[in-house]
């Protein structure tokens, strides 16, 4: 970390006549002019000039000394094999000394090489790097400070608009280093509270649930994990059919990045099973069924696609956008989206949702119990397993709907 980074760059002699600032002087009661001799912190042109110099240092380290070095303004993170740590440390220090740059040689920002290092407000854990895994998570102090702040707000039972926006900024940064999308759904509740009209400072029960969820994620959420397996891709195509008399049909298949279908399922559920959903005022449940099929698929194939990228194709626009946003006007669809987010978080899956035209969707066949030459019987999920995945997904939604629906992500546990 460079010490007083901007002050180390002097203003060019030819530009000194332009480097004056007018500041009110309370001692004389009028404005006074001050000439700057170094780049002013916060000025846009100063930022551009400084970044050019910082990038030069990174270039010298890579080009001359073959040192891998990240660069973020005045922070540099170097990587080294254990046997070369001492050499790398000495080389970096010597390079900065020769070029005349001052840097933190003592104090909390003067880190030695280790498998766990703090930089840029987060902790980099390389203890599993030999297995191809890098963990990035919040520092312990940041976690403790933010958890205490959340608890104070919950205890107070109210939060002003200014406090809401400040808290959301802090939590968005912290949640960025915890894997998964559940936190983003909870952050939306804070945003809704801040911009509610008319504004009411008192915390709703749903917002309290969201704050408690974020607190629990900070304490026990798994860190952002980077692995080589994240380069693997899978494809899931889903479809559902709906009839007031026949009930619902659910079908999907899983394909690898070579386009080979490696598993598929087909399931039919009687209409009577969804009586509680019709009581919510719905006349057509196709949106719920299309979304629910994704939940069933992830429940079945989560262990296959762990820590991978998954393209999920749906032929229903409403279900697609609900899964992208994480919520819907339908309480049941919102709860299914929450359940899907929990599955993705649990298996460290990176999803991408897209639409496939029905005519091009092979999943139409299993959702209607129709055979197809590409869907081999040997790769079909046993119906009892598909029913079990449906039951778990369905019961999650049912248990929340019985409490009024959409009451937050922490109930029931």
Care to describe what's here?
This protein is α+β, with helices and mostly antiparallel strands and 413 residues long. 40% of the residues lie in helices and 19% in strands. It contains 12 helices and 13 strands. The chain has helices at residues 44-63, 85-99, 140-156, 161-175, 182-194, 205-220, 275-278, 286-301, 317-325, 331-346, 364-367, 383-401, and strands spanning 20-25, 30-35, 69-72, 75-78, 116-119, 122-125, 133-138, 224-227, 233-243, 247-256, 261-269, 309-314, 350-355. The strands form 4 sheets. It has a 5-stranded mixed beta sheet with strand order 11-10-9-12-13. It has a 4-stranded antiparallel beta sheet with strand order 5-6-7-8. Strands 1-2 form a two-stranded antiparallel ribbon. A hairpin with a 7-residue loop joins strand 6 (122-125) and strand 7 (133-138). Helix 3 (140-156) runs antiparallel to helix 6, helix 8 runs parallel beside helix 10 and helix 10 (331-346) packs across helix 12 (383-401). The model is unreliable at 404-413 (pLDDT under 50).
């Amino acid at each position: 970390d460079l010490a007083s980074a901007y002050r180390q760059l002097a203003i060019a002699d030819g530009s000194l006549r332009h480097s004056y600032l007018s500041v009110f002087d309370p001692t004389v009661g009028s404005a006074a002019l001050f000439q700057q001799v170094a780049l002013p912190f916060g000025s846009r042109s100063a930022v551009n000039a400084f970044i050019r110099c910082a990038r030069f240092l990174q270039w010298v380290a890579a080009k001359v000394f073959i040192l891998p070095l990240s660069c973020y303004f005045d922070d540099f993170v170097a990587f080294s094999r254990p046997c070369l740590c001492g050499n790398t440390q000495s080389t970096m220090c010597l390079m900065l000394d020769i070029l005349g740059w001052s840097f933190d040689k003592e104090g909390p920002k003067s880190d030695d090489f280790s498998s766990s290092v703090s930089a840029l407000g987060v902790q980099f854990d390389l203890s599993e790097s030999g297995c191809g895994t890098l963990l990035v998570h919040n520092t312990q102090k940041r976690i403790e400070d933010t958890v205490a702040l959340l608890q104070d707000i919950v205890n107070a039972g109210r939060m002003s608009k200014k406090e809401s926006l400040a808290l959301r900024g802090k939590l968005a940064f912290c949640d960025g280093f915890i894997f998964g999308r559940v936190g983003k759904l909870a952050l939306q509740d804070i945003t809704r509270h801040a911009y509610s009209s008319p504004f009411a400072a008192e915390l709703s029960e749903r917002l309290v649930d969201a704050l408690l969820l974020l607190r629990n994620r900070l304490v026990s959420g798994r860190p952002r994990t980077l692995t080589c397996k994240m380069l693997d891709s899978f494809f899931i195509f889903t479809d559902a059919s709906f009839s007031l008399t026949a009930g619902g049909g659910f079908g999907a298949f899983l394909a690898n990045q070579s386009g080979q279908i490696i598993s598929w399922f087909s399931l039919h559920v009687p209409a009577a099973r969804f009586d509680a959903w019709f009581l919510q005022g719905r006349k057509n449940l196709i949106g719920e069924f299309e979304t629910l099929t994704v939940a069933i698929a992830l429940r079945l194939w989560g262990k296959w696609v762990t820590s991978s990228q998954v393209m999920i194709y749906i032929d229903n626009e409403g279900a697609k956008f609900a899964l992208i946003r994480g919520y819907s006007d339908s309480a049941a669809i919102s709860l299914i989206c929450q359940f899907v987010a929990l599955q993705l978080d649990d298996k460290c899956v990176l999803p991408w949702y897209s639409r496939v035209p029905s005519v091009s969707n092979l999943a139409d066949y299993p959702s209607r119990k129709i055979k197809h030459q590409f869907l081999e019987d040997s790769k079909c999920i046993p119906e009892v397993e598909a029913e079990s995945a449906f039951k778990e997904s369905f019961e999650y939604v049912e248990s929340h709907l019985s409490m009024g629906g959409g009451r937050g992500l922490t109930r029931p546990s």
